[in-house]
Amino acid sequence: MENHPLVKEILFSKEEIEVRTKQLAREIESYYKSRDVKENTVILIGLLKGCIPFMADFIKNFDHECQTEYMVVSSYLGGTKTTGEPKINLDLNISIKDKHILIIEDVIDSGITLEYIKNYLSLKGAKEVKVVTLLDKREGRKVNIEADWSGFVIKNEFVIGYGLDYDERLRNLPYVAVCDVDKLKDWKW
């Protein structure tokens, strides 16, 4: 696939992401195998829509009993900055009381949405809530929250591809790239 014209720089290739995802799956497997996990099953909760490519690759490599669930939580309303007010648009359809939860996230930026969801899941009775993220944008933090596992630490730049979008587009790029935001001003789709 040719680089999209809105790509300023490719940060991580498909191959680099695949290698790191396999490493994360092994690390997290080891963690859960050393725990007393109810029914030996971890509930993997993907935060849609950006988590899809990462979660798909992760679960193919995660050798531990799991269930997959999804939530839609929005704090972006089509631009490049968060509104700072998370809203649950799609909630879980199962009870998570006394369950081990692993949130699968594409990127942690401000941390506001993740903090909100972790607290929400704890209030619903989860025994433990852990987080794995593909990308960790620590410079963008507005709250004190960290991932338990992260694939790559990145600078505070707007990134696209591999599930990450601009206005619901560009999620299908097979790599993670810095978006050339200057071009967005007059971009014609």
Automatic annotation (TrEMBL):
Where does the record place it?
Cytoplasm
- Domain of life of the source: Bacteria
Query: In this protein, which residues make up the domain named Phosphoribosyltransferase?
Result: 30-166
Recorded GO molecular functions are: guanine phosphoribosyltransferase activity; hypoxanthine phosphoribosyltransferase activity; magnesium ion binding; nucleotide binding
Q: What does the sequence similarity comment in the record state about its family?
A: Belongs to the purine/pyrimidine phosphoribosyltransferase family.
Any Pfam family hit: Pribosyltran
Reaction catalysed by this chain?
Answer: GMP + diphosphate = guanine + 5-phospho-alpha-D-ribose 1-diphosphate; IMP + diphosphate = hypoxanthine + 5-phospho-alpha-D-ribose 1-diphosphate
The record, for NCBIfam families, names:
HGPRTase
Kindly provide the name given to this protein in its UniProt entry: Hypoxanthine phosphoribosyltransferase
What cofactors are annotated for this protein? Mg(2+)
The record's EC number reads: 2.4.2.8
InterPro entries per the UniProt record, alphabetical: HGPRT, Hxn_phspho_trans, PRTase-like, PRTase_dom
* Keywords from the named record: Cytoplasm, Glycosyltransferase, Magnesium, Metal-binding, Nucleotide-binding, Purine salvage, Transferase
Q: Which biological processes are named by the entry's GO terms?
A: GMP salvage; guanine salvage; hypoxanthine metabolic process; IMP salvage; purine ribonucleoside salvage
What the entry lists under CDD domains is as follows:
PRTases_typeI (cd06223)
| Assigned GO CC terms | cytosol
Pathway note:
Purine metabolism; IMP biosynthesis via salvage pathway; IMP from hypoxanthine: step 1/1; Purine metabolism; GMP biosynthesis via salvage pathway; GMP from guanine: step 1/1
Q: Source taxonomy lineage?
A: Bacteria, Bacillati, Mycoplasmatota, Mollicutes, Entomoplasmatales
